[in-house]
Amino acid sequence: MVNVVLIPNNGTGLKNYVWADDMAFVPSPVPWNPEHQMQKLQVTRKLLATEDQAAFPLGGGTPRYVYLASNHSNKWGHPRGYRIQILSFSGQPLPRDSLLERAFSWGRYQLAVTRRKEAEPSSSSIYNLNDPWTPTLDFTDFINNETIVGQDLVAWVTAGFLHIPHAEDIPNTVTVANGVGFFLRPYNFFDEDPSFYSADSVYFQEDQDAEACAVNPLACLPQVAACAPELPAFTHGGFTHN
């Protein structure tokens, strides 16, 4: 079970907002029989204005979509942002009535969004181990109902899973369904699906230069993809990898 800190940087400044999108049933009369009602699904959208509203306890209900948005919009008029989609939970690291629990109080929340402060760089401290009964840092102190509208924000995400060893773990533990983590997904950040412009299959003939950009666009990828990491060659077990 781990707690990860996300500092939003949408490339549009430090004014960010937390939105919650969900679905709700709305009663509506049946057109051909007004005496009866039917339930229609309707999208609901709520701006989370305070730290208390944006703190979701572990095991509690959360909106289906929680995303951090900037004060800039895409061409469709929607705020550009990123959705936080949590994939796995474990359980409480310690019961609330434990005297040690305050040292791990970040484990109370599956997601919490707070205002960014230099005095709050992490959700815990190594010094909590020295005296967990009187911890140096208590994460719950970060959540004090301050406004988070148009502020520089931090999202604290807790993810984990439970694995009880069993016979099928021998000789190796299966990784399927044992994944842990979360997705940070663009949510109206782009005007359309950016993968639409990804290169598909490349065809070139024997007499053509495969390293020419006009023939093979992927040959120029290092020049256009500045974010692609340049990994140095390394040797392991007698094999050299590039």
Could you tell me the strand content as a percent range? 25-35%
* Biggest sheet descriptor: 5 strands, antiparallel
Across the major sheet, the strand order is: 3-2-5-6-9
| Amount of helix | under 10%
**Mean of pLDDT:** 85
The number of helical runs is: 1
CA-based shape: extended
Intertermini distance: 34 Å
Unreliable segments of 5+ consecutive residues? none
Radius of gyration, whole Å: 24 Å
Order of helices and strands: EEEEEEEEEHEE
**Overall strand count:** 11
Q: Structural class, from secondary structure content?
A: mainly beta
Explained architecture:
- This protein has 242 residues and is mostly beta strands.
- Helices cover 2% and strands 34% of the residues.
- It is extended and about 75 Å long.
Keywords:
242 residues; mainly beta; four-stranded antiparallel beta sheet; 2% helix; 34% strand; extended
What's a quick, concise take on this entry?
This protein is an all-beta fold. Helix content is 2%, strand content 34%.
Architecture blueprint of SSEs:
Blueprint: E1 2-6, E2 16-30, E3 33-48, E4 55-57, E5 65-73, E6 79-86, E7 109-115, E8 153-159, E9 182-187, H1 221-224, E10 234-236, E11 239-241
Antiparallel strand pairs: 1-8, 2-3, 2-5, 4-7, 5-6, 6-9, 7-8, 10-11
